[in-house]
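Give me C-alpha coordinates for this 315-residue protein.
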Amino acid sequence: MEGLNLEQDMTKLVRNNFSEDTNIVLYPGDCRNLLKQIPDNKIQLIVTSPPYNIGKKYEKKTKLELYLELQTAVIKECMRVLSPKGSICWEVGNYIKKGEIIPLDLVLYPVFKSLGLKLRNRIIWHFEHGLHCSKRLSGRYESILWFTKSDDYKFNVDPIRVPQKYPGKKYFKGPKKGQFSCNPLGKNPGDVWQIPNVKNNHVEKTIHPCQFPVELIERLVLSMTNKNDWVLDPFMGTGTSAVAALLHRRKSVGAEIMPEYIDIAKKRIKDTIRGQAKVRPMNKPIYAPSKNQSSKIIAQFSYPLYSDNKEHALV
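Here you go.
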Protein backbone atom coordinates (compact mmCIF):
# COMPACT_ATOMS: atom_id res chain seq x y z
CA MET A 1 0.00 0.00 0.00
CA GLU A 2 1.34 3.38 -1.02
CA GLY A 3 2.74 5.47 1.81
CA LEU A 4 2.61 2.65 4.36
CA ASN A 5 5.72 2.37 6.53
CA LEU A 6 5.89 -1.15 7.96
CA GLU A 7 8.24 -0.01 10.74
CA GLN A 8 5.83 2.58 12.13
CA ASP A 9 4.55 2.21 15.68
CA MET A 10 1.03 0.69 15.77
CA THR A 11 -0.33 3.81 17.49
CA LYS A 12 0.65 5.77 14.39
CA LEU A 13 -0.18 3.05 11.89
CA VAL A 14 -3.72 2.39 13.13
CA ARG A 15 -5.66 5.59 13.81
CA ASN A 16 -8.59 5.78 16.24
CA ASN A 17 -10.39 8.45 14.20
CA PHE A 18 -11.00 8.89 10.50
CA SER A 19 -8.35 10.76 8.57
CA GLU A 20 -7.84 10.92 4.83
CA ASP A 21 -4.06 10.92 5.22
CA THR A 22 -3.94 7.44 6.75
CA ASN A 23 -4.62 3.89 5.54
CA ILE A 24 -6.07 2.12 8.58
CA VAL A 25 -8.72 3.37 11.01
CA LEU A 26 -10.09 1.29 13.89
CA TYR A 27 -12.55 3.32 15.96
CA PRO A 28 -13.08 1.98 19.52
CA GLY A 29 -16.78 2.66 19.93
CA ASP A 30 -20.20 2.96 18.32
CA CYS A 31 -20.03 2.99 14.52
CA ARG A 32 -22.52 5.87 14.37
CA ASN A 33 -19.91 8.12 15.97
CA LEU A 34 -17.30 6.98 13.43
CA LEU A 35 -19.65 7.52 10.48
CA LYS A 36 -20.14 11.16 11.52
CA GLN A 37 -16.40 11.70 10.92
CA ILE A 38 -16.43 10.42 7.33
CA PRO A 39 -17.12 12.87 4.47
CA ASP A 40 -19.92 12.29 1.97
CA ASN A 41 -19.22 9.88 -0.93
CA LYS A 42 -15.83 8.81 0.47
CA ILE A 43 -16.18 5.00 0.77
CA GLN A 44 -16.05 2.62 -2.19
CA LEU A 45 -17.16 -0.57 -0.41
CA ILE A 46 -19.12 -1.04 2.80
CA VAL A 47 -19.06 -4.66 3.89
CA THR A 48 -20.20 -5.91 7.26
CA SER A 49 -21.95 -8.57 9.26
CA PRO A 50 -23.99 -6.70 11.88
CA PRO A 51 -25.30 -8.30 15.09
CA TYR A 52 -28.25 -10.61 14.41
CA ASN A 53 -30.15 -9.66 17.60
CA ILE A 54 -29.88 -13.19 19.00
CA GLY A 55 -28.25 -12.29 22.32
CA LYS A 56 -24.55 -12.87 21.66
CA LYS A 57 -21.95 -11.46 24.05
CA TYR A 58 -21.42 -8.33 21.95
CA GLU A 59 -25.11 -7.38 21.61
CA LYS A 60 -28.19 -6.78 23.72
CA LYS A 61 -31.22 -8.65 22.42
CA THR A 62 -34.11 -6.26 21.76
CA LYS A 63 -37.50 -6.31 20.09
CA LEU A 64 -37.19 -6.75 16.33
CA GLU A 65 -38.74 -3.32 15.73
CA LEU A 66 -36.06 -1.59 17.81
CA TYR A 67 -33.33 -3.65 16.16
CA LEU A 68 -34.54 -2.53 12.72
CA GLU A 69 -34.66 1.07 13.91
CA LEU A 70 -31.01 0.94 15.02
CA GLN A 71 -29.95 -0.80 11.81
CA THR A 72 -31.79 1.80 9.74
CA ALA A 73 -29.89 4.63 11.44
CA VAL A 74 -26.57 2.98 10.55
CA ILE A 75 -27.62 2.15 6.99
CA LYS A 76 -28.70 5.76 6.33
CA GLU A 77 -25.27 7.03 7.35
CA CYS A 78 -23.61 4.33 5.27
CA MET A 79 -25.62 5.53 2.28
CA ARG A 80 -24.34 9.07 2.85
CA VAL A 81 -20.64 8.14 2.95
CA LEU A 82 -20.87 5.69 0.03
CA SER A 83 -19.28 6.69 -3.27
CA PRO A 84 -21.65 7.12 -6.25
CA LYS A 85 -19.89 4.10 -7.81
CA GLY A 86 -19.79 2.21 -4.52
CA SER A 87 -21.34 -0.95 -3.13
CA ILE A 88 -22.87 -2.05 0.17
CA CYS A 89 -22.66 -5.74 1.11
CA TRP A 90 -24.75 -6.58 4.19
CA GLU A 91 -24.10 -10.13 5.42
CA VAL A 92 -26.82 -11.52 7.69
CA GLY A 93 -28.39 -14.72 8.97
CA ASN A 94 -31.67 -15.34 10.78
CA TYR A 95 -33.29 -13.78 13.82
CA ILE A 96 -34.85 -16.52 15.94
CA LYS A 97 -38.00 -15.86 17.97
CA LYS A 98 -39.55 -18.68 20.00
CA GLY A 99 -38.23 -21.29 17.60
CA GLU A 100 -39.39 -19.41 14.49
CA ILE A 101 -36.77 -18.04 12.10
CA ILE A 102 -37.07 -14.59 10.58
CA PRO A 103 -34.61 -14.04 7.68
CA LEU A 104 -32.96 -10.70 8.37
CA ASP A 105 -32.20 -10.05 4.71
CA LEU A 106 -35.95 -10.03 3.99
CA VAL A 107 -36.80 -7.54 6.75
CA LEU A 108 -33.80 -5.31 5.94
CA TYR A 109 -34.37 -5.19 2.18
CA PRO A 110 -37.11 -2.50 2.39
CA VAL A 111 -34.74 -0.27 4.38
CA PHE A 112 -32.13 -0.30 1.62
CA LYS A 113 -34.75 0.01 -1.11
CA SER A 114 -36.34 3.06 0.56
CA LEU A 115 -32.97 4.84 0.31
CA GLY A 116 -32.78 4.28 -3.44
CA LEU A 117 -30.15 1.53 -3.36
CA LYS A 118 -30.34 -1.15 -6.05
CA LEU A 119 -30.00 -4.86 -5.27
CA ARG A 120 -27.53 -6.51 -7.66
CA ASN A 121 -27.28 -9.94 -6.05
CA ARG A 122 -28.47 -11.91 -3.08
CA ILE A 123 -25.35 -13.99 -2.52
CA ILE A 124 -25.81 -17.21 -0.58
CA TRP A 125 -22.87 -18.28 1.58
CA HIS A 126 -23.14 -22.03 2.11
CA PHE A 127 -21.12 -23.87 4.76
CA GLU A 128 -21.17 -27.41 6.13
CA HIS A 129 -20.77 -27.01 9.89
CA GLY A 130 -22.79 -25.41 12.67
CA LEU A 131 -25.33 -26.08 15.36
CA HIS A 132 -27.44 -29.23 14.93
CA CYS A 133 -31.16 -28.57 15.23
CA SER A 134 -33.65 -31.11 16.56
CA LYS A 135 -36.96 -29.48 15.60
CA ARG A 136 -36.05 -28.07 12.17
CA LEU A 137 -33.40 -28.52 9.52
CA SER A 138 -29.97 -27.31 10.61
CA GLY A 139 -29.07 -23.88 9.20
CA ARG A 140 -26.20 -24.06 6.74
CA TYR A 141 -26.28 -20.73 4.92
CA GLU A 142 -26.28 -16.98 5.36
CA SER A 143 -26.90 -14.31 2.76
CA ILE A 144 -25.16 -11.19 1.51
CA LEU A 145 -27.30 -8.41 0.08
CA TRP A 146 -25.21 -6.54 -2.49
CA PHE A 147 -26.55 -3.08 -3.24
CA THR A 148 -25.15 -0.28 -5.39
CA LYS A 149 -25.79 3.43 -5.14
CA SER A 150 -26.20 3.88 -8.90
CA ASP A 151 -26.18 2.01 -12.19
CA ASP A 152 -22.59 3.16 -12.77
CA TYR A 153 -20.70 1.01 -10.25
CA LYS A 154 -17.36 -0.76 -9.99
CA PHE A 155 -17.43 -4.49 -10.65
CA ASN A 156 -14.73 -6.73 -12.09
CA VAL A 157 -15.35 -10.47 -12.02
CA ASP A 158 -11.89 -11.49 -13.31
CA PRO A 159 -10.06 -11.41 -9.92
CA ILE A 160 -12.60 -13.78 -8.37
CA ARG A 161 -13.13 -16.29 -11.16
CA VAL A 162 -13.06 -19.94 -10.12
CA PRO A 163 -11.80 -22.98 -12.10
CA GLN A 164 -13.97 -24.09 -14.99
CA LYS A 165 -15.89 -27.31 -14.48
CA TYR A 166 -15.09 -28.38 -18.05
CA PRO A 167 -11.94 -26.42 -18.99
CA GLY A 168 -11.47 -28.30 -22.27
CA LYS A 169 -14.97 -27.72 -23.58
CA LYS A 170 -15.11 -26.44 -27.19
CA TYR A 171 -17.74 -25.12 -29.58
CA PHE A 172 -19.03 -28.01 -31.68
CA LYS A 173 -20.56 -25.95 -34.49
CA GLY A 174 -20.74 -22.44 -35.93
CA PRO A 175 -17.94 -19.98 -36.77
CA LYS A 176 -16.13 -20.76 -33.50
CA LYS A 177 -16.21 -24.54 -33.98
CA GLY A 178 -13.16 -26.16 -32.39
CA GLN A 179 -12.32 -23.13 -30.23
CA PHE A 180 -12.49 -23.25 -26.44
CA SER A 181 -15.93 -22.09 -25.31
CA CYS A 182 -15.04 -21.11 -21.76
CA ASN A 183 -13.14 -18.15 -20.37
CA PRO A 184 -9.45 -19.13 -19.90
CA LEU A 185 -9.34 -17.14 -16.65
CA GLY A 186 -12.05 -19.28 -15.10
CA LYS A 187 -15.78 -18.98 -14.63
CA ASN A 188 -17.99 -16.50 -12.82
CA PRO A 189 -18.40 -17.89 -9.26
CA GLY A 190 -22.16 -17.37 -9.35
CA ASP A 191 -24.28 -16.28 -6.41
CA VAL A 192 -23.89 -19.40 -4.23
CA TRP A 193 -20.48 -19.50 -2.52
CA GLN A 194 -19.34 -22.60 -0.67
CA ILE A 195 -16.67 -21.41 1.75
CA PRO A 196 -15.84 -23.15 5.06
CA ASN A 197 -17.03 -21.25 8.11
CA VAL A 198 -14.60 -20.42 10.91
CA LYS A 199 -14.81 -23.20 13.48
CA ASN A 200 -12.34 -24.38 16.13
CA ASN A 201 -9.85 -26.02 13.76
CA HIS A 202 -9.91 -23.14 11.24
CA VAL A 203 -6.58 -21.32 10.79
CA GLU A 204 -8.30 -17.93 11.22
CA LYS A 205 -10.19 -18.80 14.42
CA THR A 206 -10.20 -16.23 17.25
CA ILE A 207 -12.39 -15.90 20.36
CA HIS A 208 -15.19 -14.31 18.33
CA PRO A 209 -18.20 -16.71 18.26
CA CYS A 210 -19.51 -15.63 14.83
CA GLN A 211 -16.38 -14.80 12.87
CA PHE A 212 -16.66 -14.94 9.10
CA PRO A 213 -13.83 -16.14 6.81
CA VAL A 214 -11.43 -13.76 5.08
CA GLU A 215 -12.12 -15.36 1.69
CA LEU A 216 -15.76 -14.30 1.86
CA ILE A 217 -14.71 -10.65 2.12
CA GLU A 218 -11.79 -10.99 -0.30
CA ARG A 219 -14.15 -11.80 -3.14
CA LEU A 220 -16.15 -8.64 -2.48
CA VAL A 221 -13.06 -6.46 -2.06
CA LEU A 222 -11.40 -7.73 -5.24
CA SER A 223 -14.48 -7.46 -7.44
CA MET A 224 -15.91 -4.15 -6.17
CA THR A 225 -12.87 -1.97 -5.39
CA ASN A 226 -9.55 -0.86 -6.83
CA LYS A 227 -6.22 -0.46 -5.04
CA ASN A 228 -6.19 2.34 -2.44
CA ASP A 229 -10.00 2.51 -2.27
CA TRP A 230 -11.61 2.76 1.18
CA VAL A 231 -13.34 -0.35 2.60
CA LEU A 232 -15.61 0.34 5.58
CA ASP A 233 -16.88 -2.17 8.15
CA PRO A 234 -19.24 -0.55 10.72
CA PHE A 235 -19.18 -3.70 12.87
CA MET A 236 -15.51 -4.69 12.66
CA GLY A 237 -15.37 -7.56 15.17
CA THR A 238 -11.89 -9.08 15.15
CA GLY A 239 -10.81 -7.35 11.94
CA THR A 240 -11.62 -9.82 9.15
CA SER A 241 -12.63 -7.09 6.71
CA ALA A 242 -9.45 -5.14 7.51
CA VAL A 243 -7.32 -8.20 6.79
CA ALA A 244 -9.08 -8.79 3.47
CA ALA A 245 -8.69 -5.13 2.47
CA LEU A 246 -5.02 -4.84 3.47
CA LEU A 247 -4.06 -8.10 1.77
CA HIS A 248 -5.07 -6.46 -1.51
CA ARG A 249 -3.73 -2.97 -0.83
CA ARG A 250 -7.00 -1.24 0.01
CA LYS A 251 -7.54 1.20 2.87
CA SER A 252 -9.52 -0.03 5.86
CA VAL A 253 -11.83 1.79 8.26
CA GLY A 254 -14.09 0.24 10.87
CA ALA A 255 -15.58 0.45 14.35
CA GLU A 256 -15.83 -2.04 17.21
CA ILE A 257 -17.24 -1.68 20.72
CA MET A 258 -15.65 -4.74 22.38
CA PRO A 259 -12.11 -3.99 23.72
CA GLU A 260 -10.98 -7.62 23.47
CA TYR A 261 -11.99 -7.76 19.80
CA ILE A 262 -10.16 -4.48 19.10
CA ASP A 263 -6.95 -5.96 20.55
CA ILE A 264 -7.29 -9.04 18.33
CA ALA A 265 -8.07 -6.91 15.27
CA LYS A 266 -4.94 -4.80 15.84
CA LYS A 267 -2.81 -7.95 16.08
CA ARG A 268 -4.32 -9.37 12.90
CA ILE A 269 -3.73 -6.06 11.11
CA LYS A 270 -0.13 -6.01 12.30
CA ASP A 271 0.41 -9.62 11.16
CA THR A 272 -1.12 -8.82 7.77
CA ILE A 273 1.19 -5.85 7.20
CA ARG A 274 4.18 -8.01 8.11
CA GLY A 275 3.05 -10.74 5.72
CA GLN A 276 2.29 -13.10 8.59
CA ALA A 277 -1.51 -13.17 8.46
CA LYS A 278 -3.09 -16.52 9.24
CA VAL A 279 -5.50 -16.86 6.34
CA ARG A 280 -7.06 -19.76 4.50
CA PRO A 281 -6.05 -19.22 0.83
CA MET A 282 -8.72 -18.20 -1.63
CA ASN A 283 -10.20 -21.05 -3.68
CA LYS A 284 -8.43 -23.70 -1.62
CA PRO A 285 -10.34 -26.97 -2.20
CA ILE A 286 -12.71 -27.88 0.60
CA TYR A 287 -11.50 -30.91 2.52
CA ALA A 288 -13.25 -34.13 1.63
CA PRO A 289 -12.49 -37.46 3.32
CA SER A 290 -10.96 -40.18 1.16
CA LYS A 291 -13.10 -43.07 -0.04
CA ASN A 292 -11.38 -45.35 2.46
CA GLN A 293 -12.16 -42.99 5.34
CA SER A 294 -15.77 -42.64 4.23
CA SER A 295 -16.19 -46.39 3.82
CA LYS A 296 -14.88 -47.05 7.33
CA ILE A 297 -17.25 -44.47 8.84
CA ILE A 298 -20.22 -45.81 6.89
CA ALA A 299 -19.41 -49.39 7.86
CA GLN A 300 -19.17 -48.39 11.51
CA PHE A 301 -22.64 -46.90 11.66
CA SER A 302 -24.60 -48.78 8.99
CA TYR A 303 -27.01 -51.67 9.47
CA PRO A 304 -27.63 -54.61 7.12
CA LEU A 305 -30.65 -54.55 4.82
CA TYR A 306 -31.93 -57.69 6.49
CA SER A 307 -31.45 -58.32 10.17
CA ASP A 308 -32.71 -60.60 12.89
CA ASN A 309 -33.00 -57.46 15.01
CA LYS A 310 -36.31 -56.03 13.78
CA GLU A 311 -35.61 -52.67 15.41
CA HIS A 312 -32.60 -52.08 13.16
CA ALA A 313 -33.76 -53.86 10.00
CA LEU A 314 -34.14 -51.44 7.10
CA VAL A 315 -36.48 -53.71 5.12
